[in-house]
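Propose amino acids for all 405 sites.
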């Protein structure tokens, strides 16, 4: 028995070590490390000893992996939902918060900013009130900052980013490089290009030191965007291509799509319309493959503009029609989602009303019982008084018995 306990303890420690390593790979991905195979191995071992916490972490890691690496949204949501239910069983508030923040990352990447903010705020509330690990705490502030940045709420974004930086005691194991990169992005939007460039290169240095290649590609892309806004198109393309090269080596298609769009847009601004079309067509292929309709709106607009500049009016019309159809589809999906939400709210209200009526009926029944009980007690008292009036008193009965003796 004791031997089995020792074996289980060793296995739990092994599973926890693997899960922690995979969880932190998004900051500094390791070469020649098959995270999916390792994660599956850890999950099988956790199941073999019914280790709930280990299984939950494996599913959370798998979910993020399916989204970031395999580009499979369905399996991403399925695994993260399983993780959420398991963490709920354990009442592990820290990892429930991390699960909310994982949902926030995915929804923000998919441009579902309202849902991203909903999950982000639910997740950050734990880290606002508790210490937690530095890694998770900085990640939480980075995610909320990014959501607000994408919502163009720059002061709120900057506040979350600077709070995250204040916890960065160890730059080799934090999200510091990403935060600096995102701060630079805010300054770019505010047209503070000198500050943006300075912080971007600082971010690039940190990300390279962390061996965070995907973070490095993001920083290179951000530097390219700054130069593009300054109309330094050749410099911009240099950094965009460096970022694209890294992203293609990692085969992270959402990031590749972003690079292709930036390169195409830069060529368009640089009056190189045929080159622009080449990159927009490549972007369209990925967007269709991943079913990213929001991205298709941008792509079709850009392709139509390029054809118009090339005086290819029939082709421009074709892509304006595609733009119209995909926009109409997005609008219809949003309408259906709204109707579903309203329907669910009405059902919830109806259920609440039924429950309220049940309670009203229950209260009425209790009241009726109280009245009946009162009537019964009154009847019993009345009967008792009649009985006492009809029966002779005790002294009379006692005297009668004595005479009989």
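Proposal:
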């Amino acid at each position: 028995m004791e031997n089995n306990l020792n074996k289980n303890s060793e296995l739990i420690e092994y599973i926890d070590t693997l899960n922690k390593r995979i969880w932190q790979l998004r900051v500094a991905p390791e070469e020649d490390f098959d995270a999916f195979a390792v994660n599956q191995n850890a999950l099988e071992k956790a199941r073999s000893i019914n280790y709930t916490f280990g299984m939950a972490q494996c599913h959370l890691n798998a979910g993020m992996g399916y989204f970031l690496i395999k580009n499979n949204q369905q399996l991403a949501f399925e695994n993260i939902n399983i993780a959420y239910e398991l963490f709920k069983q354990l009442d592990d508030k820290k990892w429930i918060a991390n699960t909310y923040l994982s949902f926030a990352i995915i929804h923000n990447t998919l441009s579902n900013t309202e849902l991203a903010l909903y999950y982000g705020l639910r997740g950050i509330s734990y880290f606002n009130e508790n210490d937690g690990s530095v890694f998770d705490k900085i990640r939480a502030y980075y995610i909320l900052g990014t959501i607000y940045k994408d919502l163009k709420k720059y002061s709120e974004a900057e506040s979350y980013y600077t709070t995250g930086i204040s916890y960065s005691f160890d730059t080799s194991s934090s999200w510091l490089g990403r935060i600096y990169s995102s701060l630079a992005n805010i300054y770019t939007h505010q047209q503070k290009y000198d500050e943006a460039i300075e912080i971007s290169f600082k971010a690039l240095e940190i990300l390279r030191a962390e061996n965070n290649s995907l973070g490095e590609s993001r920083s290179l892309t951000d530097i390219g965007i700054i130069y593009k806004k300054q109309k330094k198109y050749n410099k911009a393309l240099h950094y965009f291509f460096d970022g694209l090269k890294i992203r293609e080596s990692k085969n992270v298609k959402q990031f590749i799509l972003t690079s292709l769009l930036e390169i195409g847009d830069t060529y368009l601004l640089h009056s190189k319309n045929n080159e622009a079309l080449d990159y927009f067509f490549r972007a369209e292929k990925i967007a269709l493959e991943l079913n990213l309709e929001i991205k298709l709106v941008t792509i079709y607009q850009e392709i139509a503009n390029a054809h118009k500049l090339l005086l290819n009016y029939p082709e421009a019309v074709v892509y304006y029609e595609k733009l119209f159809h995909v926009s109409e589809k997005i609008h219809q999906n949003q309408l259906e989602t709204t109707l579903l939400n309203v329907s669910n709210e009405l059902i919830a209200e109806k259920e609440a009303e039924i429950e309220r009526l049940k309670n009203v009926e229950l209260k009425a029944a209790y009241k009726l019982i109280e009245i009946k009980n009162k009537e019964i007690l009154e009847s019993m008292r009345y009967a008792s008084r009649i009985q006492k009036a009809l029966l002779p008193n005790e002294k009379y009965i006692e005297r009668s018995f004595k005479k009989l003796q």
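Confidence is low (pLDDT under 50) at residues 1-5, 400-405. The radius of gyration is 33 Å.
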